[in-house]
Amino acid sequence: MYNLFQQNDKELVMVNLVGDQFFKGKIIDSSSHMIILFNGENFIYIPFRHVKDIKNEEAETENKIVKPADFPSIISNSLNVNLTLEGALHKARGMYTEISVVSKKPLYGTIGEVLNDYFVFYSPIYKTMYIPITHLKWLIPYIHGEEPYGLSKDNYKMSISDRQYKQYFSMQFAELIGRLVVINVGDKVPDIGKVETIHNNIVELRTAKENLYINMDHIQTIHVV
Predict the structure, then answer these.
(1) Which of 25, 112, 156, 222 is deepest in the core (most CB within 10 A)?
(2) Is 216 a member of any domain?
(3) Cβ 152 vs Cβ 137: under 8 Å
(4) Coil, strand, or helix at residue 89?
């Protein structure tokens, strides 16, 4: 596949994401769906839907990032495949990862099941979370077997063996009717309440004091209290 960014493989670039998030590094692979950036330490998987612009970055010689000797830890361009975010998520199942969904605050945890339009994410802080794939801004796999927060594997397990998840986010959300949930963790004011009904893509949430109606297209994360 023709790589639009092939001319940048020896130069630093600055990737500007929607919402004014910036990453500096080398683009080591790309497709029509996503790019893989190496910042000197980590491989960062960034879907194009969240990229605002990319430009060459001037830097002193001693600050330039050396091209990595190994291929990305999830998908290798030697496989000659068209990189997709869904493919990266499938490859990353069971791995410790850092992801960004809401605002600029990353989440740390393990990717579980990957369904048609969302994935299940286990966080040691928020436990099981449901995240629409379209809202995932970037993904960084952990390296060298590190665990978030320094927790041991015995204290950091995700049980997904026998649980059945619905194939679509809206269907899985419907399973939460009557449950207390937190929506959009990491937002300045996340929405907390009991799911009353879901109709025509609108979620009716009963908060502590009132009913709130939320467009499901703008729900980025859910976790059950």
Answers:
(1) 222
(2) yes
(3) no
(4) helix
Q: Is the four-CA dihedral 26, 29, 31, 35 of positive or negative sign?
A: negative
Q: What is the reported pTM?
A: 0.88
Lowest mean pLDDT among 3-7, 11-15, 26-30, 65-69: 3-7
Which residues are CB-contacts of 178 (< 8 A; sequence separation ≥ 6)?
Answer: 194, 195
CATH of the domain at 19: 2.30.30.100
Per-residue pLDDT band for 30 (boundaries 50, 70, 90) equals: confident
Query: Does 176 fall in a domain?
Result: yes
Does some domain include residue 120? Answer: no
Q: 8 lies in a domain?
A: yes
pLDDT digits (tens, 9 = 90+) for 184-205: 998 888 899 999 999 999 999 9
When divided into structural domains, the chain yields a total of: 2
Cα separation of the two ends of the chain = 45
The rounded distance, in Å, linking the Cα atoms of 129 and 75 is: 24
